[in-house]
Automatic annotation (TrEMBL), chain A:
This is Vacuolar protein sorting-associated protein 33B. Pfam families: Sec1 (PF00995). The gene is VPS33B. One of its GO terms (biological process) is vesicle-mediated transport. InterPro entries: Sec-1-like_dom1, Sec-1-like_dom3a, Sec1-like, Sec1-like_dom2, Sec1-like_sf, VPS33_dom3b. Signal peptide: none annotated.
From TrEMBL, chain B:
The keyword Oxidoreductase does not apply. It is found in: Cytoplasmic vesicle; Early endosome; Late endosome. Its main location: cytoplasm. It comes from Rhinolophus ferrumequinum (Greater horseshoe bat). The keyword ATP-binding does not apply. Keywords: Cytoplasmic vesicle, Endosome. Residues 40-60 are annotated as: Disordered. InterPro entries: Spe-39, Vps16_C, Vps16_C_sf. GO terms for biological process: collagen fibril organization; collagen metabolic process; endosome to lysosome transport; intracellular protein transport; post-translational protein modification. The lineage of its organism: Eukaryota, Metazoa, Chordata, Craniata, Vertebrata. GO terms for molecular function: protein-containing complex binding. This is Spermatogenesis-defective protein 39 homolog. Residues 177-277 form the Vps16 C-terminal domain.
Amino acid sequence: MAFPHRPDAPELPDFSMLKRLARDQLIYLLEQLPGKKDLFIEADLMSPLDRIANVSILKQHEVDKLYKVENKPALSSSEQLCFLVRPRIKNMRYIASLVNADKLAGRARKYKVIFSPQKFYACEMVLEEEGIYGDVSCDEWAFSLLPLDVDLLSMELPEFFRDYFLEGDQRWINTVAQALHLLSTLYGPFPNCYGIGRCAKMSHELWRKLEEEEDGEAKGRRPEIGHIFLLDRDMDFVTALCSQVVYEGLVDDTFRIKCGSVDFGPEVTSSDRSLKLLLNAEDKVFNEIRNEHFSNVFGFLSQKARNLQAQYDRRRGMDIKQMKNFVSQELKGLKQEHRLLSLHIGACESIMKKKTKQDFQELIKTEHALLEGFNIRESTSYIEEHIDRQVSPIESLRLMCLLSITENGLIPKDYRSLKTQYLQSYGPEHLLTFSNLRRAGLLTEQAPGDTLTAVESKVSKLVTDKAAGKITDAFSSLAKRSNFRAISKKLNLIPRVDGEYDLKVPRDMAYVFSGAYVPLSCRVIEQVLERRSWQGLDEVVRLLNCSELAFAGLTKEDKASSESLRLILVVFLGGCTFSEISALRFLGREKVMCLQRSPYCVSRKP
Amino acid sequence: MSRTKGDEEEYWNSSKFKAFTFDDEDDELSQLKESKRAVNSLRDFVDDDDDDDLERVSWSGEPVGSISWSIKETAGNSGSNLEGREQLKSRNSFSSYTQLPKPASTYSLSSFFRGRTRLGSFQSLSDALSDTPAKSYAPELGRPKGEYKDYSNDWSISDTVRRLRKGKVCSLERFRSLQDKLQLLEEAVSVHDGNVITAVLIFLKRTLSKEILFRELELRQVALRHLIHFLKEIGDQKLLVDLFRFLDRTEELALSHYREHLNIQDPEKRKEFLKTCIGLPFSAEDSAHVQDHYTLLERQIIIEANDRHLELAGQTEIFRKHPRKASILNMPLVTTLFYSCFYHYTEAEGTFSSPVNLKKTFKIPDKQYVLTALAARAKLRAWHDVDALFTTKNWLGYTKKRAPIGFHRVVEILHKNSAPVQILQEYVNLVEDVDTKLNLATKFKCHDVVIDTCRDLKDRQQLLAYRSKVDKGSAEEEKIDAFLSSSQIRWKN
């Protein structure tokens, strides 16, 4: 593996505690409804729930049957119904229709709604409007952090990105603050705290407020994690828009990793059924290749296959006693490894087949050209052709967004023609998609000429006042200028390499994009941690449009041992990619943990 | 940021990105295949006692007894008839799980995460708590929040907001003056909690006239965004429209009206609805798109009715030979064009379903048209049509082949539709760039093109190398040998 496990690597905190906590809370909540009951679970909560509890645990607490929350009448005959849901309006409507149907039939049952991770007033309002407030009891299950791996936590909230970055709704900020508060009570205070972005800043402020309100409890505890870094996803859309080429990223792009596990279809398993596989450090084969550039993976796998062969071959020429030993001690491990190996080989084959078919090489070339900012015309016509041929709609959007952000918006003529062709190829209703992307700042049109930039700078001096909201709003699209080129230059994101970039022995984080680009998000984190502040990064912060939104602070007196100081918690508000996780693992002379929200945030549908 | 041509070439030719390519099917895949063979050869030995329990849990991912598995069971059974009910009941109930060969509880799911368990994996909450001085792991665990009722009227604005933030029920009725209401809203905004902001907005919406509410929110953008999102979520389209109108955000107004069409399934009704969208204040650009959307659906409805009839009648050859897989309704324009090139290629321009008519009505660019027509005709293996698509006559009457999309694309599309080698060959020969031509010819096994190109390049070494790739004793081999031994050619190597 590229990064040998350093003997002096600090030990990671025990995150399984989070799972036990969530499980015990759930049990407590189920006990609040004594007696037999049927449990309705929202689809999105099923996988997270599976990771912390199982059927026998639920059964022990008198859960009789399990149902999925979906738009169908319930067939349950139980006297008590319990709903385990995300706080979404459509769930409330579903529950209301169920309860009201019962009422109409003159049937009396007990209902309980458990909101995870918290309840929203808008949901309660719907219950009230539907006339069932009081008929159902409401509770909260504060299960906000799911450990996906030894160094990876997730909130599993796919709507976070859309709610905050598109709609400007701050409803999840409290959830983030609560989660951070939980972490600091469990693992001690964080001595150093950094962040960038509006959401990061607000989450940080609310979190501090929570800590103050419940002061005294975490005091005097020895910190286990030295640094925390909060980062808004819209600081760096570019990285999230690039095709991934490390193994874990490719598996995600190809098969979708959901809640830490992946569904391999028959083409991978070379049998007639699909297989669900957990992808984490427990999978020894996966653990060694997950962070590798795809080109190294074949070599590794074939070496592994040879070793395995050799180990099996040893049984020839064994006597009975040795054979007995072999079977009882080694065989199981070897068999396990054998299966893992054949699965990952199958996955590689499938990825390779798919990528060769879709001209992946050309796609990557285009992406690299966009990142470096040359051959823009050629890239634009590549994208155009991509659209004309009706190749994947998501991929086309991804490329257009990448072009837009790296170029500070599309030239009006290109914007119009690409949009028209897109609507013709994939359907006119994508008009709404374009409007959303524009609002999120992912796909914009260049303002004609320099005149507007001048106006902008003049106006921006005037509109510091809150009351001038309307003007600010009108200019917000301008404020979102991505300035990618300037940032890239300043932070040296495109490494100049003489000769070949050796992907086997990566020299920097750029290896996660074949040596062509250092992920912006990870570079910012690296720079700040090196300085332990934002000092000297003023220009970068300004270019990121975050002049008042970057913060750093020693929150508690620095009592931490040097050991714990090397652990860093990175919080991506709005999701991160596996490439970024790999880059951070590479960076981690100190081990790094990532808190990941939604795994991928590429395209927003209407 | 422009670079000189030389720079670019150097860039692409530098070895930086050549270390690994996804095009290199041969090398990389063969390595992979080799590994696969090796692993597969081990299978005989391994497969004898496959059903090892421990592995079953970690491998099937959804172990027997997992929650997702058990929900699937309930779902799968719930639709069946009454007779099976009793039986199902016993199968569904949890007691039957214990009869399964291996109870799931033996392998708790958490064992996947056998991290460094300092506390042991099955410790209860209270044990974990006693380990640390912290007390607030599970805030309010003792009393469910729903049961908190507090009707005290004395909470200050900041106290009220704090209580709201903690999820406690808290009456807002005492905030009756506009000033109080606005202060409450500002306090909510200042703590950043969107849930509290929405709670206050629900109260304001109920207790303020919409003019006043809108007027105040216009000055408070954060709160305004929350109200808009809230209205979208609960589907209060009417108030949303009023709000956009008040704010003079006409484009958003139009888009939010247009969005409604997604909820209308019936094509006729959808068409009528789209008609009402046409006059809305979209941007000039979007206006045209919405108009096109309406026209397209209108056409599709006509084509669909007509073709369904033709197909049912069973008289038309093309529909008999290639029955339609899906209705054309609500498909994108390009798909419609493909459909029309497939089923209605020869129709005169006057009919709605003819490709030429579509091209004219929607101003489809040449490139797009050729690409789509090519794919459709190639799929039908109508090579003659393909030929005609690229043939142009100049004023002297000579014919010439021209493709607005580049012949390398043409070749790829033909190959995807498994065109015979003779056809492929013809188009590979039309590729201008020699390297691309050679690559494509090699990839698609157009031997003649490869051989001739090597000869033209006077590249003896490459020709020699290619000799090993053609069949022994084939005509191609003879041809290569003839060239290699020819004294007419002055090889460069």
